[in-house]
Amino acid sequence: MDQDRKLMSSVIDWKNEIADIAGSFEPTDTKQSWLNRVARQCGLTLRHVTSIYYGHVTDPKHSVATKILSAANQARIERGRKHAAVAIEIYRVASERLADLNEDRYRDEIDVLQRASRIIGDVDRS
Question: For residues 47-77, b (16+ Cβ closer than 10 Å) or e, as one string?
Fold first, then answer.
């Protein structure tokens, strides 16, 4: 059992998981407010999150670990959706500008950009 705990703490980078949930450290943030953001999103206490972040606890209870890992995955999904939305907008604007320049001449490029934005949009919805 002790071997399993060591394995979990060495495989999961808790600091990275917590940072993914908290997002960027804003100029108005303190370390405590940044970690408190994670605690609220995970439904945990600030003490739990702080202890795990600073390595005082290397093998959190299953329920705590599950909440952190689940919230980190959700944060990554949301970040991916935001990036996809930015890409879709870039492709949309580029195709519109090409159409404004000369729709007949750039028809192939416009079609590729529009197809790419539809594909990204379809993946984002799933």
Answer: ebbbbbbeeebebbeeebbebbeebbeebee
The whole-chain average pLDDT of the chain stands at 89
Helices (H), the chain: 2-11, 14-22, 31-42, 46-53, 62-102, 107-125
Domains in the chain: boundaries: 2-125
Chain center to CA of 113: 25
pLDDT at 96: 93
Parts of the chain with a pLDDT under 70: 1-10, 123-126
Q: Please list, in sequence order, all residues whose beta carbon lies within 8 angstroms of the beta carbon of residue 60, skipping any fewer than 6 positions away.
A: 14, 48, 52, 68
